[in-house]
């Protein structure tokens, strides 16, 4: 199991923490995850029972943990069918990001890093701030000035230094790019670094264990697409281990105001110039140029799934529908409801819906 540049094939260096290839500037990715049932450590808590699947971490790396993973699977009757909701909003910092951040923080600490920086619309920043506090790392978070108040306060309470940036989510990334050009600091990017992907894959192992079989379909909010890709690779690892016969149909959900993956899947790469970055309540998926778009599109167009776009008017309605069933999530997570309504009739059972962020992160 290795980490390599997808462009030139060079392996990740044994020292340092570059977020992109030092040879060609390409994106790093991990090799296929290998899952061995007899190596699952049932004496470890949460996702750490699957440590043997974590590429990029050495055996000696002590896990930076706040108790992430082992989130419940809650069943509800929707249109006379049983649907399972995977409650990732119940992770320690209130979002699925904790599965990936635990591995990123462990990786960085294992390489002697003391200070880190990240750009985020909120949840990744809150998660990194929490795990940096746990690991004893100094952290700076670049966020949109318009980021949800509760998320901003959460980041501040963990002790992180906030840099609010006016403009779009892309402007935030641009400001951080300029900063790291002038400062020697580790970029703990949940988008660039691939070590978080095996962390997201652990949700697939949990779902398999909770249901006792592979889901027929999995629906998840999709911005950069890390969770979608991690889940896909987790189920693929289970299939190659002989534990399931077929991977589930994967559904990535985007807000129509900023839906690049949906647009590209519908109209092809020539439509990239028509992708908008409009304002949306689903701020966590407002990503105009997902770094791993090519991987995600290849995965979906091979018959493994599809992308669905949700109208803005349906987002808060979805939040309220979920809340009426005892599931309180933020708008970014609530976009799954409209997607469920749009395509549920043609999805195979059992259907699993990922609830990615807590409702306590949103103040409206």
Walk me through the structure.
This protein has 364 residues and is α/β, with parallel strands linked by helices. It has three domains: 1-31, no CATH class; 73-96 and 194-361, Rossmann fold (3-Layer(aba) Sandwich), CATH 3.40.50; 97-187, Rossmann fold. It contains ten helices and twelve strands. It has helices at residues 97-110, 123-135, 149-157, 169-182, 197-211, 226-240, 260-267, 293-304, 315-323, 331-343, and strands spanning 3-5, 28-30, 73-78, 81-87, 115-119, 138-144, 161-165, 186-187, 217-221, 249-255, 305-310, 351-355. A six-stranded mixed β-sheet has the order 3-4-12-9-10-11, sandwiched between helices. Strand 6 (138-144), helix 3 and strand 7 (161-165) form a beta-alpha-beta unit. Helix 1 (97-110) crosses helix 2, helix 1 crosses helix 5 and helix 2 (123-135) packs parallel to helix 3. The model has no long low-confidence stretch (mean pLDDT 94).
Main β sheet profile: 6 strands, mixed
CATH topology name of the largest domain: Rossmann fold
Strand content: 15-25%
Range of helix content: 25-40%
Distance separating the two termini: 45 Å
Number of helices: 10
Q: What top-tier CATH class of the largest domain fits best?
A: Alpha Beta
The topology string of helices and strands comes to: EEEEHEHEHEHEHEHEHHEHHE
What is the gyration radius calculated from CA atoms?
19 Å
The chain-level mean pLDDT equals 94
Strand arrangement, largest sheet?
3-4-12-9-10-11
Global structural class? alpha/beta
- At CATH's second level, what is the architecture of the largest domain? 3-Layer(aba) Sandwich
The number of distinct structural domains comes to 3
Q: Low-confidence spans: pLDDT under 50, at least 5 residues?
A: none
- Would you report the number of β strands? 12
**Rough outline:** globular
């Amino acid at each position: 199991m290795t980490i390599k540049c997808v462009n030139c094939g060079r392996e990740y260096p044994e020292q340092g923490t570059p977020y992109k290839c030092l040879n060609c500037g390409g994106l790093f990715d991990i090799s296929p995850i290998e899952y061995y049932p007899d190596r699952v450590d049932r004496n470890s808590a949460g996702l750490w029972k699957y440590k043997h699947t974590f590429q990029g971490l050495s055996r000696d790396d002590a896990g930076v943990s706040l108790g992430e993973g082992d989130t419940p699977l809650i069943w509800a009757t929707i249109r006379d069918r049983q649907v399972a909701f995977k409650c990732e909003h119940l992770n320690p910092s209130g979002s699925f990001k904790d599965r990936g951040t635990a591995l990123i923080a462990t990786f960085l600490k294992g390489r002697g890093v003391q200070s880190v920086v990240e750009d985020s619309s909120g949840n990744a920043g809150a998660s990194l701030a929490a795990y940096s506090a746990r690991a004893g790392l100094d952290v700076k978070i670049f966020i949109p000035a318009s980021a949800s108040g509760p998320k901003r306060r959460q980041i501040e309470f963990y002790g992180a230094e906030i840099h609010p940036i006016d403009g779009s989510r892309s402007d935030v990334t641009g400001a951080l790019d300029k900063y790291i050009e002038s400062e020697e600091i580790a970029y703990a990017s949940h988008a660039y670094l691939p070590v978080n992907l095996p962390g997201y894959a652990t949700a697939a192992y949990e779902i398999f264990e909770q249901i006792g079989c592979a889901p027929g379909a999995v629906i998840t909010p999709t911005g950069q697409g890390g969770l979608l890709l991690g889940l896909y690779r987790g189920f693929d690892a289970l299939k190659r281990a002989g534990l399931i016969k077929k991977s589930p149909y994967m559904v990535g959900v985007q807000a129509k105001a900023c839906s690049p993956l949906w647009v590209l899947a519908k109209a092809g790469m020539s439509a990239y110039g028509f992708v908008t970055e409009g304002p949306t309540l689903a701020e966590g998926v407002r990503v105009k140029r997902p770094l791993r778009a090519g991987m995600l599109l290849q995965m979906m167009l091979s018959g493994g799934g599809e992308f669905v776009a949700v109208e803005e008017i349906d987002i808060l309605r979805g939040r309220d529908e979920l809340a009426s069933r005892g599931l309180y999530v933020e708008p970014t997570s609530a976009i799954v409801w409209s997607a469920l309504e749009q395509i549920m009739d043609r999805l195979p059972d059992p259907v699993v819906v990922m609830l990615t962020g807590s409702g306590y992160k949103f103040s409206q």
